[in-house]
Amino acid sequence: MTLIELVIVVAIISLLAAIAYPNYQRYLLRGQRTAALADLALIQLEVERNYQTSYLQASEGVITQGHCNRCQSSPQQYTLSLSATEDDYTISATPIGTQRNDRCAELSYQQLSLDHAGNQQPAKCWK
How far apart are CA 6 and CA 52, in angstroms? Predict the structure, then answer.
């Protein structure tokens, strides 16, 4: 193999890597978002399961310091929160670190959320 052939092979490999790496990064971000969406649904199920007279009481201990023990999402990617009153609640996942670069349907988002009525925000991220 000559030096020119070697340079051509290295150039082709570099070109392929330049195309593949950004796609891989998007794939990782999308996977973390999917895990966070599943966690929001899991937390909703837990709150509804605990509900007896108020959502405030049902939400106690489900999320501790931005993390839930039964969740799949990484605490380095999302901070989970649950705000509840007697009659309603909202569960949210706020991206942190590299996850802030995630986009769904070419939409940049600040937070994923799910409320007591099943409203999912932003809607495009839940599809």
Answer: 70
Q: Report the SS3 class of residue 86.
A: coil
Per domain, the residue ranges of the chain are: 3-126
pLDDT attached to residue 95: 96
- Per-residue b or e along 110-124, where b marks 16 or more CB atoms closer than 10 Å to that residue's CB: eebbbebeeebebee
- What number is the average pLDDT over the span 71-91? 93
Which amino acid does the sequence have at 87? D
**Amino acid found at 58:** A
Model pTM? Answer: 0.84
Angstrom CA distances, 124 to 33, 109, 113, stand at 12, 10, 12
Whether the predicted pLDDT of 67 surpasses 80: no
Contact assessment for residue 55 and residue 86, using Cβ atoms and an 8 Å cutoff:
yes
